[in-house]
Automatic annotation (TrEMBL):
It comes from the Bacteria. This is GNAT family N-acetyltransferase. It comes from Christiangramia lutea. GO terms for molecular function: acyltransferase activity, transferring groups other than amino-acyl groups. Residues 1-149 form the N-acetyltransferase domain. PROSITE patterns: GNAT. The lineage of its organism: Bacteria, Pseudomonadati, Bacteroidota, Flavobacteriia, Flavobacteriales. Signal peptide: none annotated. Pfam families: Acetyltransf_1.
Amino acid sequence: MKILIANKSHASYAEIICNTIEESAKVRGTGIARRTPEYIINKMEKGNAVIALDGEKFAGFCYIETWSHDKYVANSGLIVHPDFRNQGLAKDIKNVIFEHSRKKYPEAKIFGITTGLAVMKINYDLGYQPVTFSELTDDEAFWKGCQTCKNYDVLTRTDHKMCLCTGMLYDPAKKKDAKKVEKPKSRFNEKTFQRLKHIKQTLFFKKEKLEKE
């Protein structure tokens, strides 16, 4: 298995990448911003993506998005092909794209929004911290990308302040300060995030039901 910085020679995998992302979202029943093969190829050509290959077979993918004049970076579209799941590949891909992002955009804040507990744990282990949406980029282009998500109405109803996703942020400036004061690292509490997700689902869907009545 090889995890590589993608380039234009990997363009032939764009279609299967998009299909795998979409099918995974359907199985999980979660919202996701759809991407086109052309969009994925553009990321490859700019060196803003990593791809995992088992020989010539597609195994996984993740790409970089930049916002607010490169002040914010997001590692998006993390996906592992069904044939290679439950082997720790998602974490390996995330580690590679995270380090690639830090080298290419050393001053940028790296953030993500997700409903997946597995991704939250990977992010937490890399040094991300849960934050409110107000601490993420205010670039309208980023939030416009959420329009194809089935939960977009929740985001608009809360004026982009909250959604079913959890926002997480890695701030390189804070990490530099943290090195000066050594603190024991707390463990990722999965039950807490599950409870938070359940509360938000109950709150938003109950409100939606009342509005329809």
